[in-house]
Amino acid sequence: MAMEFKAAEVQMNCRHNRRQFEITTSQYKLTIDEDGFRYGLEQPGCTKAAKVEPHARSGLCFSRADGPAPSPAKSARLAAWEGAAVRFVVDNEAGHEADVRIECFERYVRFDITVRGEAPFLVEGRTGPMSPVYGLGDYGSQIDTVATEEPPAHGKLDIPARDRANLAGYRRSDMVNQGTNMRFVSNFAVFPAHRFAAVLFEEGSKRVAFTDTETMLGASRAKGTVRLYYFMGEMAELYADYKRVREAEGYIDKRPGYTMFRVGWEAYGSLGWNSYQSEVQDAIQQYLDRGYDLAWGVIGSGFWKGDRKGKYEGTTTSFNLWDDTYEEGRTDGLANPRFPDVAGLKAFFAERGIKLILGLRNHLKAPEEDGGCHHPVYNGPYLQEALERDYFLRHPEGGLVRITNAQFPSGTVYVLDSRNPEAVSWFVSKAETWEAQGFKEDAMIYTKHYADGNWNKLNEALMDRDLHVIVRNSAYSVPGDLIRINDTYYGSGEGYHFDQDRVPINLLNIAASGASNLYPDITGGTPKTDPTLPNYQRYFVRNAMLNAVTPGMSMGRKPWDMNHPEYESYVKKAADWHNRYSPYIYSAVMEGFRTGYPHAMTPLHIAYADDPSTYELINRQTRQYEWMLGPSMLAAPLYGNDFGTASARDIYLPAGSWIDYETGERFEGPVTLHDYPVPEWKIPVFIGGKGVVVYHEPQEGYMVEVYPTTTAAGQGRKYTHTHVDGITISTVMHGNEGWNPATLCILSDQIGIVPHRYMERTGSYRFPLVPGVHYTIAGGR
Fold this sequence. Notes:
The chain is an alpha+beta fold. It is built from 13 helices and 46 strands. Helix 7 packs across helix 8 and helix 10 runs parallel beside helix 11. The relative contact order is 0.08.
């Protein structure tokens, strides 16, 4: 039997023959075998590799969460056609039933899976194996399997890093927020060779497997309907649909602000956890005196009351209780008080045009009778207010969620329930009393409380108050300006992560997860390493060049402490370069915010998804850590655990024309540049793609630079630039026939011919950029 019907988004043809159900749209075909509920997807006109094969045994496994292993689906029966959806009842081999509703949209399919009986349930949606695969947020930097997924009693959970970005072989049964390197949690996975992506939305424990027998997304303790999505199409289409879907599911991206994509400063890089006012102001002033242009500064700790060695000290949620009064009996060896002139501190930042960003956690100390270290003077009345109004997370059975192994503060803490709008409004109103311009959100909680989205609504609310937010914990989306990965520091021993290969793998799998407004931690890392050690100095320079070519960059450790003027100049060069091109970087960030595609930091396997040579570049053997920084820059920093010895890399340039930013040398891709020199002083960037960048210099203002990488007949004809207000648009269109400087001209839609400069070394053309004006490159024959 067959049926045809129209829905708001898709026209479907449905056919049900011989225990197989088939849905065909203009974009894909979905087949479902009633035996084993085995389903597959195929896109018309695609190669065989783009076909998603059914699982060999069953497309669905389910059971009670506290029961035996999940039972595979045995059979399914069609229950109803409902507009653009079909509904099945699925029986598993253990004799249990689940209702599965499948709704078809233009380029994606949604499975709503509800197991019959008493929750919680374990559910797995399965297809055949696919590779390569990327994503999984912070988990994308972890090894494939671990001996145990339980956290330690206290301290960091140091799971070894992966050897490559490709997640083939990966399996996890309890993927959830867990502190240090598992903060941004997403199970979104993208399969470039198959033009395919998948995500399962779940606040609690998530399951994934990308093995040689299956591709699986699941939930370990689902309390209701599990919602699983499969996306098909070109990379830009996949990410656009994923953004649309995640926001419909309540995971919102917030509009980033330009300021946070200029170079900032974090006190931790200079002072660790022991910040105090005189050193904060002195460190920032030293940077300014040396010509660094800082746009924001973070004081993450120490601004609250109490002895820094005492368990009763305040926290970031001791709202507006600054350590501004002398106290007898302190033993921390720091200034007493640490912040004696709060008004003067705020004026210091404001007078220098630097945004003051403070640390902010989403938990409060519990009372002493519950194992906490609450202190009425140091912490204020906020605990009692929140308890009386029932603003903290609770377990399903009603008890308060108790966190007993947070990195800070000592003792038990209670966590704000961000699903409660009143709790969020109360918390934000209290946070605003600090009178900062933004917050670096954090928690450092090692207890699994299975509420991964609990940070999202709080960060959204802070952004809605026109505050800047550096996100560290969230699920699926980035409700802030920047998302900061953790612990990229140089060093060894307790409290350090010395595996530098983890850093680019971490960044690029978060980017593949749809979040590219990335910030790779403080340049120069920890303040505890001797800055005159030669290996540390080489690390500092390589780390600075890596950070310069990512969307977010901050300083901390003072480069001049190395006592190495040459290396100090390289670090300064990296910071100046990042500030110079921050308008271009921010434009890419905004394009990503609008479209969902990771424009600001695009892994080459996403940007050039049809090129198999890009699939295995990101690995700790060849260390070809490369990405597109916006539409016109290919970043290829020399980074990894060999930073102290390496001076060259194999660099892969995809199809197109590429120009070495520093030397002006031209290359035609696809090509691998073997043992290509990357000296410590070099900005590791090639210009290609659309060939248009925007920079800012105090003497020149905002300028466009157009490189000879494409023409009207080529790809990437139009570059769209979002200005620093986040709203105004200008465009640069290639209408030229060649790049002859004698005949090439720049035209605007307002004044006609625009004066320009020809740069002989690179063959590029520079001209002033006026917001809202549109430009065309013409002539050039």
